[in-house]
Design a protein that fits this description.
The chain is α/β, with parallel strands linked by helices. Helix content is 43%, strand content 16%. Strands 10-9-8-11-12-13 form a 6-stranded parallel sheet, with helices on both faces. The protein has a 4-stranded parallel sheet with strand order 4-5-6-7. Strands 1-3-2 form a 3-stranded mixed sheet, with helices on one face.
Length: 380
C-alpha cells in the first residue's frame, strides 16, 4: 500500500516541528509507504486556505506522477473529508497508471461551502458544482458516508449505479481498561462531566453550546470539557472568558489520540453538535461511531441522520440543531439519571456500533468493491 499526501500542517496551519526536524521518520505508517508532495501550509485566513487546497492539487499533480514512477496500482482510493479537489490529482494518476479511482465522500461539496458561509456567490457555488461533477463522473465508484449523502452525490454523478453507501467504522480507541484519568482535568465528586472531543469549527455550533452551558452555569453539578482545536478555538476561549464560564467550561486544547482514553475516563456523557443546515442533517459526524463504541452515553444537538443513529441505538439524548435550551434540558435530564441508566445507554450504543459500524464487516465490503473494480479494469 502507498499513501500520497502532503506535508503535515493540520490543524495548526504550520508544518509540524517534529516533521521539519526528521522527515525521514514519517515515510512509513503501519506497513504503508507514505509519499509526500510539496504544498503550502494552511496558515490562517480564507485566502491562505484556498492556496493550501490549490497547492496540494498542483504538488500532487506534478510531483505525484514523478514520485510514483515505476509503481503499479490496482486501485486508487481517495479519502475526501474536504476539499473535493483532492480528487483531481487522483484522476490524473488513475489515467497515467490505468487504475480505477474510488472516491469516498465525507463532505458534500458545494453544499458544505454554502452551509458554513465560506462561499456565498451563487455563480461560484455553481462553478464548484461543475468541478464536483467533473470529479465524480471520472471515478469508478463514489462512496457516501451516510445514506443521506447518496441523493446529494447523485445530483452531480450521471451514473447512479456507481454510488454506494459506506459509513465510517467504529474505532475502539477512546476507552482502555485500567487507563487513569487525565491529570489536566480536576477531579470533582458529584459532578456530571460532558466531554466534547474533536474539531472546533463553524459547523459544530459552539455559540449554541455555550448558550446551554450558560443556562446551567449556576448548577455546580454539571461541567463541560472541551478537548480539541480548530478555526473557532480562539473565539471560544474569548467567549468563555467574556461570559464568565471558566468555572464550568474547561478548554484543554489538542492532544494526541493516545491520550484520549485518559480524557474519556472523566466523561459521563459525550457531546456531538452540528449547526442547523440541510447539508448537515445528511451527515453522520465522524465522532458518532467512536462515541458509540466507547460505551458512554451521548448528548446530541443535531438533526437528520446523525440524530437518528443515536435515537435508533437508544444511546443517549438528542435535541434539534441550534436548540440551546433543549441541549441544557437534555444535559440536566441525563445528569439526573442513575448509574444503571448510564450503563444501559452506553451498552446500547456499543452494541449498535458493533452491528452497524463494525470495522471488520465494513472493511470486508470495501475489499470486495476494490477487488470488483480492479478485476473489471484488468478485464477491459
Amino acid at each position: 500500500m502507498t499513501v500520497l499526501t502532503g506535508i503535515p500542517n493540520y490543524p495548526d496551519g504550520k508544518v509540524f516541528p517534529s516533521y521539519d526536524e526528521a522527515p525521514e521518520k514519517f515515510r512509513h505508517y503501519s506497513g504503508a509507504s507514505v509519499i509526500r508532495v510539496p504544498m503550502l501550509a494552511r496558515g490562517t485566513g480564507s485566502l491562505r486556505l484556498i492556496l493550501n487546497y490549490l497547492s496540494f492539487v498542483l504538488g500532487a499533480g506534478f510531483w505525484g506522477p514523478w514520485k510514483l514512477r515505476g509503481r503499479h496500482f490496482d486501485v486508487i482510493f481517495v479519502y475526501e473529508p474536504s476539499p473535493v479537489t483532492v480528487g483531481l490529482p487522483a484522476i490524473l494518476l488513475g489515467r497515467l497508471k490505468h487504475a480505477p479511482v474510488v472516491f469516498w465522500v465525507l463532505d458534500l461539496w458545494p453544499e458544505t461551502l454554502a452551509a458554513i458561509g465560506v462561499v456565498r456567490s451563487p455563480k461560484l457555488l455553481a462553478a464548484v458544482g461543475y468541478l464536483v461533477s467533473f470529479i465524480y463522473n471520472r471515478c469508478t465508484l463514489v462512496l457516501g458516508q451516510s445514506r443521506g449523502f447518496l441523493e446529494g452525490i447523485a445530483r452531480y454523478c450521471t451514473d447512479v449505479r456507481k454510488i454506494r453507501y459506506f459509513p465510517s467504522w467504529a474505532e475502539d480507541v477512546f476507552v482502555q481498561e485500567g487507563c487513569g484519568p487525565a491529570i489536566e482535568v480536576p477531579r470533582k465528586e458529584g459532578v456530571f462531566s460532558i466531554l466534547f472531543a474533536g474539531n472546533i469549527g463553524e459547523a459544530q455550533d459552539f455559540p449554541a453550546v455555550l448558550e446551554a452551558a450558560e443556562a446551567l452555569s449556576r448548577d455546580p453539578t454539571i461541567r463541560w470539557i472541551v478537548v480539541g482545536d480548530g478555526r473557532k478555538m480562539e473565539w471560544l476561549r474569548e467567549e468563555v472568558m467574556r461570559r464568565g464560564l471558566s468555572h464550568c467550561v474547561l478548554l484543554l486544547g489538542r492532544f494526541g489520540i493516545e491520550r484520549m482514553p485518559s480524557f474519556f475516563a472523566h466523561a459521563d456523557a459525550l457531546l456531538v453538535s452540528l449547526k442547523r443546515d440541510p447539508v448537515f442533517s445528511l451527515t453522520i459526524p465522524g465522532k458518532v461511531q467512536p462515541y458509540l463504541m466507547s460505551g458512554i452515553p451521548i448528548l446530541g444537538m443535531l438533526d437528520g441522520e446523525g440524530a437518528e443513529v443515536i435515537r435508533d441505538a437508544n444511546a443517549g439524548l438528542v435535541c434539534p440543531s441550534g436548540d440551546a435550551k433543549g441541549l441544557a434540558l437534555a444535559a440536566k435530564q441525563l445528569a439526573s439519571m442513575n448509574k444503571e441508566d448510564w450503563h444501559r445507554l452506553g451498552s446500547n450504543g456499543r452494541e449498535y456500533a458493533k452491528k452497524e459500524f463494525g470495522r471488520e464487516s465494513l472493511m470486508s465490503k470495501l475489499e470486495e468493491w476494490l477487488e470488483e473494480v480492479a478485476f473489471t479494469n484488468s478485464a477491459d
